[in-house]
Design goal:
Number of helices: 6
Shape: globular
Number of domains: 1
Protein name: SCO family protein
Strand content: 15-25%
Keywords: Copper, Disulfide bond, Metal-binding, Signal
GO molecular function, one term: metal ion binding
Largest sheet: 5 strands, mixed
CATH superfamily: Glutaredoxin
Strand order of the largest sheet: 5-4-3-8-9
Family: Belongs to the SCO1/2 family.
InterPro entries: SCO1/SenC (IPR003782), Thioredoxin-like_sf (IPR036249)
Oligomer: single chain
Radius of gyration: 17 Å
Helix content: 25-40%
Number of strands: 9
Structural class: alpha/beta
């Protein structure tokens, strides 16, 4: 009986997660708070650079040995699709391991996925506590680096933001139709 109850709880939590995985954020959601971080070129980059642009954001780190490489590959696929569709959209990947992910390391990491970083900004230049708070407060997603570990727990969603920096929708990276769904959302904005 106890085993059945545990499975029922797991099933309920999983179902709730699936129902929420592709849900639009409420319309009354405020824009992302102003931020200024450091990009893969060692230059300041922030929300003011994104004003007036639609953008897609995610959370990754260079030493990730699980979801980050396929997430970054999906972002590269999205970048290529955006170019083909001639959509002017910025891509932002926030590092969830800022003490390790220096601008140089972020640049080398990105070069594994694309030669064109003109619209893709990998950001760092903040403390671990800051990115954990930023992720939860601004994107309602988890970031947590356990002590004594080189891996970071983090959400795997891609967030679509409008020209005012408001999250209009988010998608889980494991969605096989992720790129097309993001493109459709961007075209409808």
């Amino acid at each position: 009986m106890l085993r059945r109850t545990k499975w029922l709880i797991v099933l309920m939590i999983g179902s709730a997660w699936l129902l929420n995985a592709c849900s639009p954020f409420p319309e009354e959601r405020p824009s992302i708070s102003p931020f200024t971080f450091t990009d893969q070129h060692g230059e300041s980059f922030g929300s003011s650079d994104l004003d007036g642009h639609m953008w897609v954001a995610n959370f990754i780190f260079t030493e990730c040995d699980t979801v980050c490489p396929p997430m970054t590959a999906k972002m590269a696929d999205l970048q290529e699709a955006l170019q083909q569709e001639q959509l002017d959209v910025e891509l932002v990947s926030f590092s969830v391991d800022p003490q390790v992910d220096t601008p140089e390391k972020l640049k080398l990491y990105l070069e594994q996925f694309t030669e064109d970083d003109s619209n893709w900004h990998l950001l760092s230049g903040y403390d671990q506590e800051d990115i954990e708070k930023f992720a939860v407060e601004e994107f309602e997603t988890l970031v947590n680096k356990p002590k004594d570990s080189d891996q970071v727990l983090h959400g795997v969603n891609f967030f679509v933001l409008n020209e005012n920096g408001i999250i209009v929708e988010d998608f889980t990276f494991s969605d096989p139709d992720l790129v097309n769904k993001i493109l459709q959302t961007l075209k409808n904005e």
